[in-house]
Specification:
It is built from 2 helices and 13 strands. The chain is mostly beta strands and 217 residues long. It has one domain: Alpha-ketoglutarate-dependent dioxygenase AlkB-like (Jelly Rolls). A 7-stranded antiparallel beta sheet has the order 1-2-11-8-13-6-3, with helices on one face. The protein has a 4-stranded antiparallel beta sheet with strand order 7-12-9-10, with no helix packed on it. A two-stranded antiparallel ribbon has the order 4-5. The structure holds N-[(3-hydroxypyridin-2-yl)carbonyl]glycine and fe (iii) ion. N-[(3-hydroxypyridin-2-yl)carbonyl]glycine binds next to strand 8, strand 11, strand 12 and strand 13.
Length: 217
């Protein structure tokens, strides 16, 4: 057998991969909690269902979204904003589960951001072909706080750009259990997700689920 120095390391191995100042991929950081997180997302979605939001420009997003926490991220013809009420149900979003809070705080600390207390968790569901065009996360009041993003289910290609729209993005493959933390000088960097390729994961079927934790207010 020949040792391959360039073989990808197994996706079950914890490892920190810097993406830039203040931005890091924590490989396999959420692997142990993965199954529990998927179960909780399913339960949350029975309270505040996944829905396809419309952008201010009138496009229906290919990614389905819901939220938990004190406030949730929503979009409609009037713009993007955080709201304490789910416009679909007229009720508050489901509270942030303790496991979510704990995982997000631990991941932020691992990336050098202490005492991260998210008040919003956006839950994204991708099916084959779903994509997220390059954007900045700029609806949060304080840019001193990082964003913590947890990938579950089928793999995706995350794109990490720079402060301006022009910078050629890094392509970062993300698999089940990977966590990206985003803050400091990289907090306003453009990023997106390429169209999801058809594949299967034992916990999610053909879907990719993503949690992004934010301090919105
Ligand atoms: C996603 N993520 O991975 C979408 N934003 O489904 C994001 O938009 C994102 O992963 C800020 C920081 C990390 C992210
Ligand atoms: Fe984002």
């Amino acid at each position: 057998m020949t040792a391959d120095l360039f073989a990808d390391s197994p996706s079950t191995e914890r490892r920190n991969e810097p993406l830039g100042p203040g931005a890091v991929v924590l490989r396999a950081f959420a692997l142990d909690e993965g199954a529990a997180l998927v179960d909780i997302i399913h339960a949350l979605s029975t309270v505040s269902p996944f829905r396809h939001l419309v952008t201010p420009g009138g496009h229906t997003m290919s990614v389905a979204m819901t939220n938990c926490g004190k406030v949730g991220w929503v979009s409609d013809r009037r713009g993007y904003r955080y709201d304490a009420i789910d416009p679909e149900t007229g009720q508050p979003w489901p509270p942030m589960p303790a496991l979510f809070m704990q995982l997000a705080a631990e991941a932020a600390a691992e990336a050098g951001f202490d005492r991260f207390v998210p008040d919003a968790c956006l839950v994204n569901r991708y099916v084959t072909g779903s994509r997220l065009t390059m954007h900045q996360d700029r609806n949060e009041r304080r840019d001193s706080e990082p964003i913590v993003s947890v990938s579950l289910g089928v793999p995706a290609m995350f794109q990490f750009g720079g402060q301006g729209k022009g910078t050629k993005p890094l392509n970062v493959p993300l698999v089940h259990g990977d966590v990206v933390v985003w803050g400091g000088p990289s907090r306003m960097n453009y990023h997106g997700v390429l169209p999801l390729k058809a594949s299967h994961h034992p916990l999610t079927g053909m879907d990719r689920l993503n949690l992004t934790f934010r301090t919105a207010r």
